[in-house]
Amino acid sequence: MITEIKGNVMYFDGCSTVELAEKYGTPLYVYSENAILKECNEIKECFPDKYENTRVAYATKAFCSIAMCKIMEREGFCMDVVSGGELFTAIKAGFPAERIEFNGNNKLREELELAIEYGIGRIIIDGLQELHMIEEICKQKNKKINVLYRITPGVDSHTHNYITTGKKDSKFGIPLDADVIYPAVEAAINSPFVNFKGIHFHVGSQLFDNCSHLLALETTLQLVKKTKEKFDYDITELNIGGGFGVTYTDEQRKPYEYFVKPVMEKITEFFNQLGMERPAVVIEPGRSMVAEAGITLYKVGSIKEIKGIRKYVSIDGGMTDNIRPALYQAEYKGVIANKMDMPADDVVTVCGKCCETGDVLIKDGKFARAEQGDILAVLTTGAYGYSMASNYNKNPIPGVVLVKDGKSAEIIKKQSYEDMIERECYVEL
Ligand code: LLP
Questions:
Q1: 18 plus 100 within the same structural domain
Q2: What is the ipTM of this complex?
Q3: Which residues of the chain have pLDDT under 70?
């Protein structure tokens, strides 16, 4: 068990959360390595170990750090990066360049140059303009690179509007209008500077229904067929993105198999019928790999009861270390980690310390009676927490600790005030 209760204290992967808070200070992001490995194993079992010619590329945007890159490297995963910064982190972690793929709707020339220089495995191109930029760079550097096209499959997935990415009206991917997609495909096939491997889509995030993936796949397979008919070209890779939902409060998480099995069946059947070899299939999970493997520890500060209305429990972090409730109305569960033996019967609103009314992490949640100095743990914060943290109100970004079987180590040092002003100066003009 990753989470256990011993006496009155919550333990996470064998470590007392109270001791972690004391040792490293709060706020503190804590990741369980065993929980991450559990995700890796579940994915491996139902995907790369089960089907030949399949790969998993962890979407680093969910949590990007040297330590995470090292774990992914050791587990044999590939990595999906979306910026020069993520790419740089992976390379600095010693992650093999050929196992990196690069996504993004507006990759900068210098990011593409870096990617081509490093010799990464794939660039997932978002439009014809990007293809031309890649061709220029490859020509200059005398290199050739593997590419896929990200398409906009025109699927409206059922999730928060900000994280649905496959709709027709989207900044991501290439629209499927015949006069747009086929010239782009033809240009990639004929380019001497790229190896055109195939098609990528990503329909959205935090999904619990496989129908969006299956609908997008249907469209993609038609495109593969048309590409064969029009250009006599065999597509050798399909990337179906990520988006697999996790449990924050009472969502029913689906096993990876629920998503990948029907996808693999559909792909296999389609290529069997066409008499073509099945292309490689890639998935790109981000959130599901790390969300439940992470918690955030805070210290309780000011407590205010507004009679007949609400009780506010303030913590020493907030929207700067977890923007998701403010940005997406995301809901979380939390516990008083040093009062696990007490009934959670006090309804309180957990708010952060930022000068912002919307800085609320948990609205009207049930907790054991909180007092100043208690350790409050917010659960399932491993994805898009640290990676979206900010210095708003000049709050330092908390440190990150990795725990495993009762051992702990800091994998990202917390920012100091000095760190925050290190690059600042005033020049009188
Ligand atoms: N592949 C591509 C091309 C993506 O755009 C994304 C996520 C993923 C993979 C990974 O999706 P996941 O498995 O994590 O759902 N900040 C938001 C999530 C934004 C996701 C953007 N793209 C949040 O905190 O909910």
A1: no
A2: 0.99
A3: 157-167
